[in-house]
Amino acid sequence: MIKSLIKPVLLSAALISGSAFAADYKVDPAHTAILFKINHLGFSETVVRFNSMEGEYSYDEKTPSASSITVTIDADSLDSNHEARDKHIKSPDFLDTKQYPEITFTSTGYQGNATQGVLTGELSLHGITKTVDLNIVKIGEGKDPWGNYRSGFNGTTTIKRSEFGVDQMMGGIGDEIKVELFIEGIRK
Amino acid sequence: MYGESVSPLMMLLPIVIYPMLAALVISFILFKLAKSGKVKTAYWLAPLVIWLAWLTAAQGIHTRWNFPPRQAMDWLLLMPLIPTLAMRTPQNIRMAGFGVALVLSFAVVAQPIVGRMSLVEIISHAIGGLLVAGITLMAAERQHNSFRFPVSLIVMMTMSALVTGISSSLSLAQMIGGICAALGAVWLMALMLKTEPQIPLLIARGSLAVWLMVLAYAHYYADVSVWALLLLALPLLIKWPSASHKKAKRPRWKDLAGTVLASVIPGLLALWLIWPEQPLY
Which parts of the chain span the membrane according to its record (chain B) (predicted)? Predict the structure, then answer.
């Protein structure tokens, strides 16, 4: 009788402890930023950021390969610190944000350890979806002063805008876009 | 803006050379058709001239054109055909027919935006579109001067290209440039061949369908101010006196200068309206 009770209790305990490691986080937009850097005439890099995004991620310290993330960026929230240029980048010449209002990234796999690795996923930009690899570095995790549990990561990748159908002004503006992701999440 | 190193010829080819050549060839055939007695066929084909010529420009600017259409810009290339054909509907329903055709055609082009609109927004935008299209066609049908009306249109189109380019989208400005080039070629051809005014006037009216579609695209997809676009199109309401130069023996350059001046002033005001506060980058 006792034996038959012990087995399910142990199984449940194992499941509960397992799920404690695979924590789900909601992206905190106030502490998350996505930057695009693009070459300008070969002289410098122009930095563009997106001010509005939402997403969720799952971080499993014990089995990092089970980690995953989904981020949706409001393409219209683009900010290059120059209003006229923002309007131009949002226009059909570049991102065409009226037609493609969202940029999304959904991970499909992770290779690496608990602190750094490569997150592979599907990036949808300008109506075209391509597989990209994000180099991820864990910055830290722990309780904040208000009792929430947080974790944070940085990610970098380089994409070619022409591969996403954004190919205007290739002479003056670089094809390669360096993407930098600074993400912080609050455990649900 | 960015000082990119693209040769001027490569830029001019799709915007000016292709549509001009296409318009010259098509309008020449059409004028010859009309002269050979096939007037009815020429009348039916005339509104299509600018759309056909403009397609050569548009496919050179929108290089990722798909058929069947996948993006809004793909649809933009095809849909002006419907309001252009609607210009040949019977006189008593032409204004409404053109308005409905233009609004419905643009709704196809603007599917992603229409899909996010509420019913009230859709109705109000449709009413606005019907009004603009109806008034435009009514104003165009009053015109009988095949020398001054196309010139006035070309000036307005040029100003709208500048407004669109400075507001946000260079590719749409280039698309409008293509319409200008095509209409300019037809105007020159009509002058050289000394054709009867009806066919050039019909061709000029046909250009309005393409122009309105591109302007609507510029407003909805590139946030170009609708007020600036309406302002620069005000000279459409001017009824140019019909071929008065023959009676008054006025030199044509005076007519030309007067037409350009009257048509450019609202465009300059529109430019002032949209001029960015920050310096161009």
Answer: 12-31, 43-61, 96-114, 120-140, 147-166, 172-190, 202-220, 226-244, 256-275
